Amino acid sequence: MFGKRGNDKPLGGAATLPPPPKPAAPKAESARPAEPPARAKAPPALEQVEVPRHVESAPMARSDNYYERKTQVFAALIDTIDLSQLAKLDVESAREEIRDIVNDIVSIKNFAMSIAEQEDLLSDICNDVLGYGPLEPLLARDDISDIMVNGARQTFIEVAGKVQQTNVRFRDTQQLLNICQRIVSQVGRRVDETSPICDARLPDGSRVNVIAPPLAIDGAALTIRKFKKDKLTLDQLVNFGAISPEGATILQIIGRVRCNVVISGGTGSGKTTLLNCLTRYIDEDERIITCEDSAELQLQQPHVVRLETRPPNIEGEGEITMRDLVKNCLRMRPERIIVGEVRGPEVFDLLQAMNTGHDGSMGTIHSNSPRECLNRMESMIAMGGFSLPSRTVKEIIVGSVDVIVQAARLRDGSRRITHITEVLGMEGDVITTQDLFVYDMVGEDAQGRILGRHRSTGVGRPAFWDRARYYNEEQRLAAALDASNAAEPARDT
Average pLDDT in the 139-154 region? Predict the structure, then answer.
């Protein structure tokens, strides 16, 4: 055992007991575990209805009395255990030791608790010491795509595209802040009053954003965009109705024949998931370099170099921007450059890369339609201070981007690929485009789910036909276009 217990005290002398992975000061909630048990989670969005729910849908509401008891037990546990000894144990052994001691504390304090309440208490305290506290049950669920913590008392989740409130709460604002600090410290960052905004990621790659007081008035706000355990494929998107089978084949060919692709969509529309799906069709002998603010892409090819931006330090120095990464990766002999999210002047460097021999490069942009995507690229180039005539900027865009794929999240929470659009050229000062596939909404069912269909616009020979022929994909492309033109026009998804 890890602690000595005296005869007349509830838990006398501090002996040896299991700590979190990172030993911390013996203060309630400051026992900061080093590395919580690794959890294999997975890619984000574009998930639909039939998601596995293998854990209870929501924890039961707990009384203030429960939290008071938990605070007393936790304080007694921290006074009893030897954190340096606990840190030497593996996670499972440490969890068992903590459970033993908590059971002793509960019986010594003579708390009147049911077996279920005692199990909840044991689980909560183990999660506090070794993991992410009240967030652990939510992180274990694969049907949740987003976790939104608004201070210690309010936690929301997104399931199947719909936001719902949970009964999860934290002991106090300090516990929430400690868990935020535990998460961001894993990627060498910190969050406190001097540096109150931070982006980080969990060991499984899930994206985390923290904004702490004084900027967050009601306590730290923590947002986690989770990844699904099983990486989604285009075939699964077809099953979900996000795209038609013929449209999925067209996207496979676009990824295979090295078209320069921009994936456009709003927040939560599934841009990163779609980008992951397209990269599955890149040949394994190609050298790929990814540039991201927070590493999310899950490429399967063997020759991938992953780059990530870095924020400035406390003195305001050492920042590495997305533009720095994109410019540097041009010197790294890439065959494809993939930018996780284009937000500013780095779009100019990405377009230059697309136009200088790095065919098949891809990126995502926040916008609501293919036409707006083109306008946003012009605006972002202007944000970089480039004094180029508008027509020149448009010519650069036309010479660089081949295809825009538009993703959207509909009001019923479902995700759809609404456009596959080619960028053709210029007519006067206007960029011309043509849609290959579009999604038409036709109504909704009794449950409020959107009904619609993907249809081909009847284009028989896309602008990238010659490129498809170069890669021996023209027959498959022709078959997909013929099948889409002959498909049942009233097919609902």
Answer: 88
